[in-house]
Amino acid sequence: VEHTLLLIKPDAVRRGLVGEILSRVERKGLRIRALELRTIDDDLARRHYAEHAAKPFFADLVAFITSGPLVAAVIEGPRAVETLRTLMGSTDPVAAPPGTIRGDFGLLVTENLVHGSDSVTSAAREIALFFPHFAADA
Ligand code: GTP
Ligand code: MG
C-alpha cells in the first residue's frame, strides 16, 4: 500500500470546498490516515516547494500557499500517488477535464485548489515535512 500527501490549498478552504474534496478522495476508495488544518509559514512553504525555487512564479507560489489555512492529509491506498493525481487533474485548471477537482472548480494556475505528491519519493519527503510523527504501519 502507498501513501501520498494531499494539500487542500487556501483557495479551496476559503471557498468551503474541503468536504467536497475529501469526499471525492474517500469515495474513490482512498483512506485518510492523517488530517490537519493549519496555516504554514514561509520556511515550510519554501521547503515543500524547494524544486521550484528558481522558477519565476516561486514568490507567488509561496505567498499563496501561506495566505491562509490549508488542510494537509496523508492519503493511503494502492497506487495512492497516481490515483490522487488523476482525481486532481492537470496543474493548469483550464486543461484539467471536467470530473477532476481542478477541472470542476479551478480557473487559475496558482489557485488550483489541491496539491498531491508527484512520486513515491516526493510523497515520503513531503509527508515527513508535514507529519514528522506519521508512521505508515501504525
Ligand atoms: P502541486 O501539486 O501544487 O505541486 O502542483 P503540480 O504538481 O500539479 O505542479 P508543479 O509541482 O509543477 O507546480 C507547483 C505549483 O506551482 C502548481 O500547483 C502551480 O500553482 C504553480 N505553477 C506551476 N507552473 C506554473 C506556471 O507556469 N505559472 C504559475 N504562475 N504558476 C505555476
Ligand atoms: Mg508538484
UniProtKB/TrEMBL annotation:
ATP binds at residues 9, 57, 85, 91, 102, 112. Residues 1-137 form the Nucleoside diphosphate kinase-like domain. It catalyses: a 2'-deoxyribonucleoside 5'-diphosphate + ATP = a 2'-deoxyribonucleoside 5'-triphosphate + ADP; a ribonucleoside 5'-diphosphate + ATP = a ribonucleoside 5'-triphosphate + ADP. Signal peptide: none annotated. Keywords: ATP-binding, Cytoplasm, Kinase, Magnesium, Metal-binding, Nucleotide metabolism, Nucleotide-binding, Phosphoprotein, Transferase. It is found in: Cytoplasm. It comes from the Bacteria. GO terms for biological process: CTP biosynthetic process; GTP biosynthetic process; UTP biosynthetic process. The active site is at residue 115. Its EC number is 2.7.4.6. Pfam families: NDK. Its cofactor is Mg(2+). GO terms for molecular function: ATP binding; metal ion binding; nucleoside diphosphate kinase activity. One of its GO terms (cellular component) is cytoplasm. SMART domains: NDK (SM00562). PANTHER family: NUCLEOSIDE DIPHOSPHATE KINASE (PTHR11349). Homotetramer. Major role in the synthesis of nucleoside triphosphates other than ATP. The ATP gamma phosphate is transferred to the NDP beta phosphate via a ping-pong mechanism, using a phosphorylated active-site intermediate. Belongs to the NDK family. This is Nucleoside diphosphate kinase.
